[in-house]
Write a structure and sequence with these properties.
Length: 121
């Protein structure tokens, strides 16, 4: 299961504790290095949030961006407008044959071959 950045962010909010304790804990999860940049790169991150995120990324597999992933992301973006981060995350999920866990399923539901789940639905 490849976690989108928004699922990682929701996982440390108290109102979504079940997301971490049930969904993430019961799946073999990974994420794209892009999610590290998107979450840890937020300019208003508190020290507690930064600490949580760093520990979180230490506990799951963080997948690098490869040339194949870049090529797939380019092909995806050529089909329809999509942010660079989303295209790279979708391409990572496709390349590693992972289901993408995201709160924004509508941003990805048109990508051919991409399996999506919204764990908060």
């Amino acid at each position: 299961m490849l976690l989108d950045s928004n699922i990682i962010i929701y996982s440390f909010h108290p109102e979504f504790q079940e997301l971490l304790q049930v969904f993430i804990s019961s799946h073999e999860c990974c994420c794209s290095i892009i999610s590290c940049v998107e979450t840890l790169g937020y300019h208003r991150l508190s020290e507690d949030e930064k600490y949580y995120l760093q520990r979180f990324f230490d506990t799951i597999t963080v997948l690098p961006v490869t040339q194949v992933i870049i090529s797939t992301a380019i092909a995806v973006r050529q089909q329809k407008k999509m942010s660079l981060g989303d295209a790279l995350i979708a391409a990572t999920a496709l390349e590693h044959r992972q289901t993408l866990a995201t709160r924004n399923a509508k941003d990805f539901d048109w990508v051919e071959g991409l399996k999506i789940v919204d764990p908060l639905a």
